[in-house]
Design goal:
The chain has about 375 residues and is of the alpha+beta class. It contains 14 helices and seven strands. The model has no long low-confidence stretch (mean pLDDT about 95).
Length: about 375
């Protein structure tokens, strides 16, 4: 088929109107909800986002409730989505928008790009999906789709300028919302990384890779970075009264997982045993001299290209005659608490520590 933008746009938009998934942020296309959903969808699967999105709206139904919230509550509500800098940027954004834009999320790209955590893709998504403005956007799904449609024979990381130019040329003046969502939806449901359903694609007649039998070879893949394994150790420290409370501390705001709560611990040094690491980390981070009572469990969690192995131990303070614990000398945290097991649910923890908490709940003997 001879390529025409109008025919391409109409075929995609008609397909999207018939096949789109009933996602919660598509009910009313409110700018606040579009913004939150797009940030959540970064590096997170759609199925998980829909669950977290509904929970988020119950806690923060609008931008004013978000702007007025404490950061601890924002991080707690984000718990489980990972990449917590996204949550901190959302919180900063909300406060800026309330203070400088009267609580209205901007529609122009210049203002959007000036906000923390909003790059070209998110700005394009807000402008086109929330406000139906003819602004292009390119995500991983669109990049893969374009690589096949236009037979792009370079890795997508090297073809960004071309991808954005194609998106700009194709986005229609009047129906940008449906068109851009259609591109993303087609990439997610039909033009998938493996075994794309070409026979059900509304754009098959426009697809150069299909016509030249190159679909399986597009996009050109780059060799991925090797996975890195990080070994860490952490310790559960009960209160000397053995009253069910445990020591937790809140990480520094500008640290990795800043603002989240944790059990003290850290990365193993070369040739160091996990038991040695947890004793050293307690002393360095809190000034507490502890001894390891027993191994509790090992948790494993994946962060992008990192595999984090967390060795977890039950510890006790070395001084056996303490009626009250000493005051910690915090070097890697901003504050601390002694909290019972049920109370730990009120605090936001990194994924590995949350897995440890859930393990302890299911295995009381671990305490």
């Amino acid at each position: 088929m001879t390529f025409t933008s109008t025919a391409f746009q109409q075929a995609l938009i008609s397909w999207f109107h018939a096949e789109q998934r009933p996602l919660p942020w598509r009910r009313d296309y409110l700018p606040y909800q579009i913004w939150i959903s797009e940030i959540m969808l970064q590096q997170t699967q759609m199925e998980r986002v829909t669950l977290f999105f509904e929970r988020w709206l119950r806690q923060f139904p609008d931008i004013h409730s978000l702007a007025g919230a404490d950061e601890d509550l924002v991080l707690k509500c984000w718990e489980g989505l990972g990449y917590y800098s996204r949550a901190r940027n959302i919180h900063k954004c909300a406060r800026i928008i309330v203070r400088e834009h009267d609580g209205v999320i901007p529609s122009d790209q210049k203002s959007l790009l000036a906000l923390p955590g909003i790059g070209p893709y998110t700005a394009g998504a807000i402008a086109s999906i929330a406000y139906n403005l003819p602004v292009p956007l390119v995500d991983a799904n669109i990049g893969r789709l374009f690589a096949r449609l236009f037979n792009i024979d370079t890795p997508l990381s090297q073809a960004q300028k071309l991808l954005w130019q194609k998106a700009k040329e194709l986005v229609p003046e009047e129906q940008a919302r449906s068109f851009n969502q259609g591109l993303m939806e087609l990439g997610a449901l039909i033009c998938t990384p493996k075994k794309p359903a070409c026979s059900r694609c509304p754009l098959i007649s426009f697809c150069i890779a299909h016509r030249e039998d190159l679909v399986a070879e597009r996009p050109i893949l780059q060799k991925g970075a090797a996975q890195l394994t990080i070994e860490m150790a952490t310790g559960i420290l009960p209160h000397p009264h053995r009253d069910g409370r445990f020591f937790i501390q809140q990480r520094l705001a500008d640290d990795v997982w800043g603002g989240l709560w944790e059990f003290p611990g850290g990365r193993l040094k070369p040739e160091e045993l996990p038991e040695q690491a947890v004793i050293r980390e307690f002393l360095e981070e809190t000034g507490f001299a502890v001894q390891v009572e027993k191994k509790i469990t090992t948790t494993i969690h994946f962060y992008t290209r990192y595999k984090v192995i967390l060795h977890c131990f039950l510890c006790t303070l070395e001084a056996s005659d303490l009626s009250e614990p000493p005051v910690p000398l915090l070097s890697a945290a901003q504050q601390y608490r002694w909290v019972n097991l049920a109370g730990l649910d009120d605090f936001a923890f990194p994924a590995g520590h949350r897995k440890l908490i859930e393990f302890i709940k299911l295995h009381p003997a671990a305490q």
